[in-house]
Design a protein that fits this description.
Blueprint (H helix, E strand, L loop, with lengths): L5 E2 L5 E2 L26 H31 L5 H28 L8 H7 L12 H28 L3 H23 L4
Antiparallel strand pairs: 1-2
Helix pairs in contact: 1-2, 1-3, 1-4, 2-5, 4-5
Amino acid sequence: MTTSTITRTDGVHLTEPIVPATRGETQAFSTARKNPLALDATAAAASIDYLNQLLADTLTLRDLYKKHHWQASGPSFYVMHLLFDKHFEEQAKLVDLVAERVQTLGGVTIAMAPDVAEATLIPRAPKDREDVANQIARLLQAHEVILLESRAMARDSAANGDLGTNDIIVSDVIRTNELQVWFLAEHLQ
């Protein structure tokens, strides 16, 4: 663990964590524990890699929904504000489901914003406020990234015998994203 100097509001400088760590790293990000899942270690490792990519992209999409929720404007403000927040909550549930699957398989989840930003395949949104049509177009593009990778991941996880991962991807990730695409695309008709 690295230390840095932090100044508290009372002016005291801290150079050590308030509660020092008693242990260091317990598992490297790129390693997997062998859990007794009756699943080949190579299949589990492949799924962990796929799921961490999916997690990075789902976290990005989730946050994109919150950005647009906060920055919605115009005549459709109220409806879009509510829709974006609903979709944010649904993506947040997927984040937890995918992350817990990574952990179940013995992996370590991608979790911190800088790591997610580095890994995501979804293009970065501008800091600026965009009109609703651009917000929807950006969200549809992000959904397409996730759906393309999810379909490939579902096929590969099934072929590798990882039916648990396949089920989560098909039953939860793909179906949720397809439904959200439909809701968004109808606003462009």
